[in-house]
Design brief:
It is built from 8 helices and 5 strands. By secondary structure, the protein is α/β, with parallel strands linked by helices. The protein has a single domain (4-193), classed as Rossmann fold, CATH 3.40.50.620. It has a 5-stranded parallel β-sheet, with helices on both faces. The radius of gyration is 17 Å and the shape is globular.
């Protein structure tokens, strides 16, 4: 029986890497998309390359998407990345690291690739429990995009496919995600999460993404294998 194809949006972080491993466990041949969208550094793209090689994906495309021209985010504009925010601050509101329309753009590219390879499945590592308040990581957003996609593509309107966006992590805490990935044998030293690494290539430990990552490993009872400049708290 032929294996099914799936597109995976692969940032090189914990969530997308774990979602990819789950897809592979479910017998999908993976076609990975990573985006150079004008983010502050190349470290996450290098991590995505390592993860894609480790997962032995069928293809790994790196898409140039110039969101820096639009800006409006601390990741793509001349704003400081927030550091040392408290858990309650991280849990409330939409932070300045939110990139306007980023996941909508990424999913649109994923949709285009599914049409090209004649697939009907996209894996997306969205998580709405331990996340930084991003509106485009919520399940209601993903389902709305999925409905739109099935109205917007030739294969869907002709009744050949029913596009499905898989979000296996959507209701998991970061600790649960890390435990799941560890059970799948993932090497999290390949991944990267920090928004603002130091000049010598270490994670800052103080941005929201680092804090959520460190909290997840601590609650999972595991050590984070990437290098940090300092350890928050």
């Amino acid at each position: 029986m032929a294996r099914k194809k799936a597109v995976i949006l692969l940032s090189g972080g914990i969530d997308s890497t774990t979602a990819a491993a789950i897809a592979r466990r479910n017998q999908f041949d993976l076609h990975a998309l990573t985006f150079r969208y004008g983010q502050r550094h190349e470290r996450e793209i290098e991590a995505a390359k390592k993860v894609a090689a480790w997962l032995r994906v069928e293809e790994h495309l790196i898409i140039e998407s110039g969101l820096r021209a639009i800006g409006g985010s601390a990741l793509t504009d001349c704003m400081e990345v927030p550091k040392g925010r408290s858990p309650s601050e991280i849990e409330h509101g939409v932070p300045v690291t939110y990139v306007p329309a980023r996941n909508t753009i990424f999913l649109a590219y994923g949709l285009a690739l599914t049409e090209k390879i004649e697939a009907s499945d996209i894996f997306f590592g969205a998580n709405q429990l331990d996340y930084s308040g991003y509106p485009d990581c919520r399940d209601e957003y993903v389902r709305a995009f999925e409905r739109m996609a099935n109205l917007a593509t030739k294969a869907a309107v002709e009744g050949k496919v029913q596009l499905k966006i898989h979000t296996p992590l959507i209701q998991m805490t970061k600790a649960e995600i890390i435990k799941q990935g560890s059970e799948l044998g993932l090497d999290y030293s390949l991944t990267w999460s920090c928004y603002d690494p130091t000049v010598d290539g270490k994670a800052c430990a103080l941005c929201d993404s680092c804090q959520l990552r460190l909290k997840g490993f601590k609650e999972a009872g595991l050590s984070d294998p990437i290098p940090y400049a300092t350890i928050a708290g």
